[in-house]
Amino acid sequence: PLDKTTTFGGKTTVTLIPGDGIGAEVSESVKEVFKAVNAPIQWEQVDVSGMEIGDKHMEDLFRESIASVKRNKVALKGILHTPVERSGHQSFNVALRQELDIFASLTSIKNLPGIETRHKNVDFCIIRENTEGEYSGLEHQSVNGVVESLKIITREKSERIAKFAFAFALANNRKKITCIHKANIMKLADGLFRNTFKKMAENYPTLECNDMIVDNASMQCVSKPQQFDVMVMPNLYGGILSNIGAGLVGGPGVVPGCNMGNEIALFEPGCRHVGLDIKGKDQANPTALLLSAVMMLRHLGHHAHADLIERAVLGVIAEGKTRTRDVGGDATTQQFTRAILDKVEQL
Amino acid sequence: GFKGKKGSDGKYTVTLIEGDGIGPEISQSVKDIYSAANVPIKWETVDVTPRLKDGKTVIPDEAIESVNKNYVALKGPLATPVGKGHVSLNLTLRRTFNLFANVRPCRSIVGFKTPYDNVDTVLIRENTEGEYSGIEHVVVDGVVQSIKLITRDACERVLRFAFQHADAIGRKKVRAVHKATIMKMSDGLFLRTAHDVAKEFPHIEFDAELLDNTCLKMVTDPTPYNDKVLVMPNLYGDILSDMCAGLIGGLGLTPSGNIGDECSIFEAVHGSAPDIAGKQLANPTALLLSSIMMLQHMGLNEYAENIQQAIFKTIAEGKTITGDLGGSAKTYEYADAVIKALK
Ligand SMILES: Nc1ncnc2c1ncn2[C@@H]1O[C@H](COP(=O)(O)OP(=O)(O)OP(=O)(O)O)[C@@H](O)[C@H]1O
Ligand SMILES: Nc1ncnc2c1ncn2[C@@H]1O[C@H](COP(=O)(O)OP(=O)(O)OP(=O)(O)O)[C@@H](O)[C@H]1O
Ligand SMILES: [Mg+2]
Ligand SMILES: [Mg+2]
Fold first, then answer.
1. Which residues, other chains included, contact B279 with Cβ-Cβ below 8 Å and sequence gap of 6+?
2. Where does B60-216 show beta strands of DSSP type E?
3. What value of ipTM does the predicted structure carry?
4. Of A110, A233, B138, B304, which is most buried with the most CB atoms under 10 A?
5. Is B216 on the interface with A (CB under 8 A)?
6. pLDDT per position as a tens digit, A10-22
7. Measured between alpha carbons, how far is A290 from A31 in angstroms, rounded to an integer?
């Protein structure tokens, strides 16, 4: 994918969208760490926000962020806030994914040594269809007090996501794929998703596949999460399971992720939380964004830089001396970042 | 509230649907324990094997009449035939009796260790519409639309029930779970209705939470939910109630109640377990706990309390428990142990 990226002065230009809430703080941490390791990345930062309702300037920034990502093909992004009250206006996060057609979302749910959790040896990936399903945004009120919300499932997009999941599993040495659905109730919609998956599976005889109803999968996740390897599912179930998954391994602060399209790769925390409650308090855990940025470096072929950052981050967490509050420590974002920078020096 | 009346013998008549597979065995345990505890209940056993009437799947009239007359039923698991456009019997029952709310409490059972301790969640699920409307169509080949239907009436009914239930079980907080950031109109309607209904219950603290946050927080630590009643649309309730069951060790231990305007049906949420049927290996706890919800619903709280303590004591002792809990007792041996533990 390197040829598709903008390279300038030996550096790759990457769009950076810090996002709302804790976005600015955790982005700062990434920028510092990237600088310390001399990562060949030039940031093109767009400070778009979802906080203001119907703000003209923000709409412009939103267009600008899309243009920037389209140009650079690679982006690192925090989460944009979506107010519940913003009627008639779609979430910027969803709009961005739809406009850029970044159809596959990947969340990596993995225990990090040093973070005590109830479940051990958890290591699975959630692959989620990102552009249709329950997030179609098609809703109407037929008569007062009666609302219909449309969920759209198409064969084309189901095929595309299934294929992505199988290719991902092969490339990452994963053995098993589980299709998550609710085809016993949504016989046509989820039925189409599941059947498309099953058909696609025939092309990948070396991978083990099965399917599971979403309520059962949620129950299995909190009782025997070790059984999962790669999971693929429609949009809404992805939201549910990535949050359940994050809860298993230490929360949204430690779960990385990315969104992939045919041309574009946008890296963002795998469990999408804005963190408005701790904004500006120097409490946020930058691990999720840092590990997302590591995925980004690998995607760009900068393996040495990726490895160095990953070892530093995981090293600090494993030592357990410097940890942010969300994972049981009392370090600030800046102290944690400092510890990573020190670690980089030692490695 | 419960409308049933005691008969001349001082007993309430309750419809009993024993169900398939392990159903008859676990129902027998309930019957044995109830007679030992002198619960003032007479069982009226009915068969709900579906019949085809004018091309539609229906439940036998006798069964419907029985539930309509008694206002309350206890139900074992019914096997769901896979595929073939069959409407599930559970769905048929739900529609026949307009069971609009599903109540699912999940409480940790001392003596059965899971990664989560002290879980005590209560979740109420809208049971009649939403993603389960069954309205789906193929727009063109390869493009399917599935309609989630949300009506203010159904929202209002289940929300009001949630507040009433909170009162009934002594909880002071109700929380609505939604995804109105994405489903602005449909979940938005649910959320707005929740705020309206909350005004009728000023003594109960109301708030709302995004589905994502509920999933995240419950899995991280479920105990902050122990003082709340959660209420949500159909699909979220379906998923989260099973997730909560996972926290306490699975469906074999979780009871449930289906509440209608007139009648209510209490049932174990696990399946018919054909693999162990007829072998006295089944654990009757989920059906027993469902029957305890039923007793509370009928106002027979003393009996509920007595049987419940006997169950918990038996499991905590761990000497006479069934295979699924790591013991080796037969179904009837476990029931006998519960009977011995009655006060
Ligand atoms: N990187 C992070 N580090 C530490 N805590 C985080 C991080 N990201 C999210 N959190 C925490 O996870 C919880 C859920 O976050 P979230 O942003 O969803 O909160 P919220 O206030 O419910 O916002 P919203 O309603 O927009 O989802 C919050 O308590 C937040 O502080
Ligand atoms: N009450 C119970 N006691 C012991 N084991 C149980 C009980 N209920 C379920 N099980 C076990 O859990 C597993 C899942 O059973 P369950 O009946 O829920 O699904 P099922 O076999 O698909 O039945 P159905 O077709 O009726 O849904 C079975 O292997 C069964 O042995
Ligand atoms: Mg959030
Ligand atoms: Mg379910």
1. none
2. 72-75, 99-107, 120-126, 136-140, 143-151, 173-178, 205-210
3. 0.89
4. A233
5. yes
6. 899 999 999 999 9
7. 9
